[in-house]
Amino acid sequence: MDPNMDPNRPSEFALIAKLFAPLAQAPGAFGLSDDAAVVPTRAGHEIVVTTDALVEGVHFLADDPPETIAAKALRVNLSDLAAKGAEPAGYFLALSLPARLDMAWLTAFARGLGANGEAFAVPLLGGDTTSTPGPLTLAITALGYVPVGAMIRRSGARVGDGVFVSGTVGDAGGGLEILTARRPGGEGAQYLVSRYRCPTPRLRLGRALRGVATAALDVSDGLIADLWHIADCSGVRICVEAARIPLSPPLRARWGETEAAILRAATAGDDYELAFTAPDASAVLAAAAAAGVGVVQIGTVEAGAGVVVVGKNGNLTVSRAGYTHF
Amino acid sequence: MDPNMDPNRPSEFALIAKLFAPLAQAPGAFGLSDDAAVVPTRAGHEIVVTTDALVEGVHFLADDPPETIAAKALRVNLSDLAAKGAEPAGYFLALSLPARLDMAWLTAFARGLGANGEAFAVPLLGGDTTSTPGPLTLAITALGYVPVGAMIRRSGARVGDGVFVSGTVGDAGGGLEILTARRPGGEGAQYLVSRYRCPTPRLRLGRALRGVATAALDVSDGLIADLWHIADCSGVRICVEAARIPLSPPLRARWGETEAAILRAATAGDDYELAFTAPDASAVLAAAAAAGVGVVQIGTVEAGAGVVVVGKNGNLTVSRAGYTHF
């Protein structure tokens, strides 16, 4: 977090470094005063690294509260670590900051980032702040530990495995719909909005799935599109029963319980639930119980390619990017 | 490099992942097909991590060639690793892409990134591509190895150490002046522009300085401002002789050899040379010779605070951010 990286706003950036320093308690972060951080290694483990950028107007809304922008940026990266079975070590933040965001905004953002880091026991290790003439852009790189060889890949699904998903899907899509005012809120609106703004990385579940899941990822593009990634990477077909796809009561109250509503939820994206395959359903349920997260089996892995969704009256046509109901 | 992260441009992003996949030959990169990468650990070593964001119009110019934008983004991050004495392990790229940049631009960018990665034997390990309504924004996170405890900090300078800098300073400032046409080129223009667009990370020198340098950083803000960082972090005063600050022949031809020219060069920034302190000048010269890089002593570390620049007729007034000549 070099306070003078950007020649245009040096004194403000020194203040920003001070704002973020309390988030950087790990010894290797050097209080954000150095050019780089040291991440200690752990015997028998390797480092898992993921990076995700979030852009205002693309991944969050310009008038989202700074606390939830911080929460989402950190949580979607932790969600990637969760899906890989990794235990977070820390994260780096590259912040490109429009001039209109003042110290009050930044203070709230740092507070949100700090609270979320504490909630998941993941320290800020370093970063970079620069000005931008464009929209607020956050790139977070998160690091975690897994035992050597234990990272859960996308490519390990095998014919005969069950297909599982944690929590419920579509809630974030409902929340986004409320926020963009295409349809105003109502009962359950707050829950759905919080699922859009503040996803829950399934870190305990991911770790419990080491050695249990054969393939896993977190649902960001939409359940169907993400299962398609597993099918592609694993060279298998994934067959899902529409009726088993889990929708929350607030979303069912809003979108209904038809197959169209279920497919809409399964293609909405931004869920950050874990979708995974595993041969032993009882081991999955034990892992879910240990992690305190609901998990349901929604389908099976078959020979072939792509994703098939089975409805009441046969297969539904589902493309990679969306769906057509007939 | 999730090809479908951004719902607005999924098919283009799948193409982008294909463009970048050849850069990701490391086993732990999984051909950019997974959510995360695995960075192997190395016995007796720890991981050094740095991140720097570059924004169009702030850190590079909108009409810079895509190859040199890629080169600079990677090299400034490698330069941070160099300053810390680290050996690069790989890097991650978060790319926020305006719609106007087409596949031809991206192909050239990927080619530049690949060529520079090869030049420094550093693989792409993963990344993320998203669209942005704003300027091109690149956040690179670079990882490297150092023996446990061997990272060269900013905070180790001790009274009596010599103060050193590699190469020459101010060249990038001259190059930027040419590119922004405040003053057209001339003899040596190409050299100065290349120093702005394509800095050289002093990786071999940085490694050779392990156990030799007591404090180090790479010059990005300007030599004086960066020495100020070392003085602050180390709790010392750094005293520099203006006449010893190394300027290249092309820059001397352009800006002259007055003390004003020297101070201008020492506050221009973007040099990505190493500035460091060390108690043993002969060990420094041996390290420089081993690395094949010119290094000169420009001053000494004293008790006190801040940076003092000594001119022909006494101390020059130099502030943290710039300078006043009297």
Kindly state the number of beta strands of chain A: 13
Quaternary status of these chains?
Answer: homodimer
Summarize model confidence as the mean pLDDT of chain A. Answer: 92
Summarize the helix and strand pattern of chain A as letters.
HEEHEHEEEHHHEHEHHEHEEEE
Distance between the termini of chain A: 53 Å
Query: Count the helices of chain A. How many?
Result: 10
Q: Which structural class is indicated by helix and strand composition of chain A?
A: alpha+beta
Order of strands, main sheet of chain A, comes to 7-9-6-10-8-11-12-13
Strand % of chain A is: 25-35%
What helical percentage do the residues of chain A reach? 25-40%
Largest interface: A-B, 72 and 72 residues
Sheet with the most strands of chain A?
Answer: 8 strands, mixed
Rg over C-alpha atoms of chain A, rounded to the nearest angstrom: 20 Å
- Can you tell me the overall shape of chain A? globular
Task: Name the poorly predicted regions of chain A.
Answer: 1-8, 322-326
Could you please describe the fold and organization of this structure?
Two copies of one chain form a homodimer. In chain A, strand 11 (306-311) and strand 12 (314-318) form a beta hairpin. An eight-stranded mixed β-sheet of chain A has the order 7-9-6-10-8-11-12-13, sandwiched between helices. A four-stranded mixed β-sheet of chain A has the order 2-5-3-4, with helices on one face. The N and C termini of chain A lie far apart (53 Å). Chain A has helices spanning 10-20, 66-83, 103-119, 171-179, 189-197, 203-208, 223-234, 249-255, 259-266, 281-291; strands at 37-39, 45-55, 87-97, 124-131, 137-147, 162-166, 215-218, 237-241, 274-278, 295-302, 306-311, 314-318, 323-324. The first copy, chain A, is built from ten helices and 13 strands. The relative contact order of chain A is 0.15. With 326 residues, chain A is of the alpha+beta class. Chain A is globular.
